[in-house]
Amino acid sequence: MNVRFRHMVLVMAATLCIGCGGSGDEPGGSPVPQPQPNGDAPISFSGSLSEGESESHARTRTGATALSATHQTFYAWAYKNPTASTYETVMQKFKVNWRSGSAGTSTTNSSGWEYVNQQGNSDIVQSIKYWDFSAVDYRFFGYTGSTESSSAPHYHCTESSSSVSISFDVSVASNPQADPVTLPLTSTTPLFSKLWYKTGSAIANDIIPVQLEFLQPYVKVRFIFKQSAPADVNFYKKDIRFAPKDDTKEIATAGTFTVTYPLKGNSTTELWSVSSTTTIDYLSQADDVVGNPPVSDDGNWYVVLPAHADDQGPYTLSLKVNNEQRSVIVPAQYMEWRPGYEYTYIFKITDVGGVALDGVVAGFRDWTTEEVNKEIYNW
């Protein structure tokens, strides 16, 4: 007879997460097995590196293999919808640990990540969870990067009647100009996942592990130049400024990042926002270099916080060409800075000494790969 462990009493974790803490099965002792009506189909987490097509034909790093190189633990939340307007909790801040070489050693470990009995000594027991194919759909998401501490929580979690929000502090250097490798991933780098959504029928037809795609809550921006006709045009890479056209708007370098996950209804994607506490007026290049550059990959990278286009508004790039001050407007629709993405703004120096926006390249790229004409990856 197939069996499953019954759901446990929900509790509030006295650790990092306030309002949606850990839950599991009976504290201590052995869980009481009960019949499992949907067959032996335990929930597991995948660790494969998936390279599927994404926006702008970008390839995205998903799953746990990309994560396990730096983060050995993440926390998972899971909810199922018995109906379109209701939800039930499956996992609340379950600790999922990386166990190198353990893939396939249990029914819940498909590729090295395990959540069963991975809790700390003071936590509620995390028991095996099974798919309910009669559910309308399932929603999973995760977070990692904080060190567990009840006295100094690094993130705050709140649950409403229709969503869960995770908030955490983010910051970059006060001078955000970056060398090619800035903010390298470490075990304390905060990462949040996109919402993993599947209908119950889709899961029943193809029982697959949950594959969470983790993102950094940061953005990389650069501006580079090319010339239509080098000829007699002297282009000075000096005192270049890239700034919001509206001088009441600023670029965030520190604040609180909040990601909100819907628990029911038709919404199947997460929403994010940034509440800034530290800002700068503009990004600048002060290199005293004269040249007639083609499209080059030597533009300085800047690490900043995400921003919605409506919050940014249009930007102005200003510089000197033939010792004359020139500027060009970048429309607001090109100023959406989404978490985990990097943006390259390409400007053309014209043969009459003007400057024009030539294109914007946006997408995922590997954090340590800076070649301009390469595939774009999630960093």
How would you sum up this structure, described in words?
The protein is mainly beta and 379 residues long. Helix content is 4%, strand content 38%. Strands 3, 4, 5, 6, 10, 11 and 12 form a seven-stranded antiparallel sheet that branches. The protein has a five-stranded mixed sheet with strand order 9-19-13-22-23, with no helix packed on it. Strand 7 (155-159) and strand 8 (163-171) form a beta hairpin. It is elongated. The two termini are 46 Å apart.
Summarize the structure.
This protein has 379 residues and is mainly beta. It has helices at residues 65-68, 200-205, 309-312, and strands spanning 3-5, 33-35, 73-81, 88-98, 113-114, 137-144, 155-159, 163-171, 177-178, 191-193, 196-199, 214-215, 219-227, 235-244, 251-262, 271-280, 283-285, 289-291, 301-304, 315-321, 324-330, 342-349, 355-363. Mean pLDDT is 73; it is low at 1-18, 22-37, 48-63, 288-296 and 363-379.
Write out key terms for the chains shown.
379 residues; mainly beta; Immunoglobulin-like; 3 helices; 4% helix; 38% strand
Q: Topology, please?
A:
Elements: E1 3-5, E2 33-35, H1 65-68, E3 73-81, E4 88-98, E5 113-114, E6 137-144, E7 155-159, E8 163-171, E9 177-178, E10 191-193, E11 196-199, H2 200-205, E12 214-215, E13 219-227, E14 235-244, E15 251-262, E16 271-280, E17 283-285, E18 289-291, E19 301-304, H3 309-312, E20 315-321, E21 324-330, E22 342-349, E23 355-363
Parallel strand pairs: 13-22
Antiparallel strand pairs: 1-2, 3-4, 3-6, 4-5, 6-10, 6-11, 7-8, 8-15, 9-19, 10-12, 13-19, 14-17, 14-18, 14-20, 15-16, 20-21, 22-23
